[in-house]
Amino acid sequence: MAYKIDENTCIACGTCAGECPQGAIKEGDVYSIDPELCIDCGTCADACPMAAIAPAE
Ligand code: SF4
Questions:
Q1: How many domains are there within the chain?
Q2: How far, in Å, is the centroid of ligand 1 from the Cα of 33?
Q3: What is the mean pLDDT of each run of 10 residues along the chain (57 residues)?
Q4: What CATH number has the domain bearing residue 21?
């Protein structure tokens, strides 16, 4: 499993990318999480000011 960013909620502030210990979050039109690198620590979800990040279903 990996965490996932809701692209409709993300405001591309970049806070999560700065917090991820794995460097798993990449910039784009909105940010996205590489499921191959994510270790499910939840740091990004706690840091996101928009609550746009949650564990993937
Ligand atoms: Fe990075 Fe942890 Fe978020 Fe996965 S859950 S993207 S490892 S901060």
A1: 1
A2: 8
A3: 95 97 94 97 98 93
A4: 3.30.70.20
